[in-house]
């Protein structure tokens, strides 16, 4: 069963139904110098998912996941 979701505007396929934690882990693996998840906020279908719920919040085919990282600067 392939699950296809949209992550920050790009289609991403998983071989099983992922959790928000799985989606974030894959996204961070693709980024050099990843912060280990610090300063990250996640929304699924425009609903913010608290970090404490990432491991238990499933993502399904067609869901839109936005992963936002805090940045410093002025």
Automatic annotation (TrEMBL):
Matching SUPFAM superfamilies: MoaD/ThiS
Matching entries from Gene3D superfamilies are given as:
3.10.20.30
Looking up Pfam families in the UniProt record yields: ThiS (PF02597)
**Entry's transmembrane regions:** none
Quote the protein name from its UniProt record: Sulfur carrier protein ThiS
Give the originating organism.
Answer: Phytoactinopolyspora halotolerans
